[in-house]
Amino acid sequence: MTAVSNETAIPIGQMDDLQPGEGRAYGVEGRQVAVFRMTDGTLRATDAVCPHRGGPIADGQFDLGNVVCPLHQYAFRFSDGGCTTEGIGSVGVYRVEDRSGEIVIWL
């Protein structure tokens, strides 16, 4: 018997609206989530607000492993949301996928 998950996929936008190398903030069920489209076309998602001083994470520079807050250059790992600098805190990370041209996220 397979376990059934209570998580629901939430469509939040079109892939065509998010270009490779771009990050964008989306309002999803009362929270702000940053979605990043990697240059290889894959997606990553985190909380959109930096825990340090509320910086706009979606505006930060990123690579396959990390996103950097544009205000104070703190880096957060996409793998677990942890900051590479101790004492700053972490951001939530979320499962996100391209489903036939639609961005879908699980909170």
Automatic annotation (TrEMBL):
Domain of life: Bacteria
Protein name according to UniProt: Rieske (2Fe-2S) protein
Region (Disordered): 1-23
Record's keyword annotation contains Metal-binding: yes
Keywords: 2Fe-2S, Iron, Iron-sulfur, Metal-binding
Domain Rieske, first and last residues per copy: 10-105
InterPro entries membership: Rieske_2Fe-2S, Rieske_2Fe-2S_sf
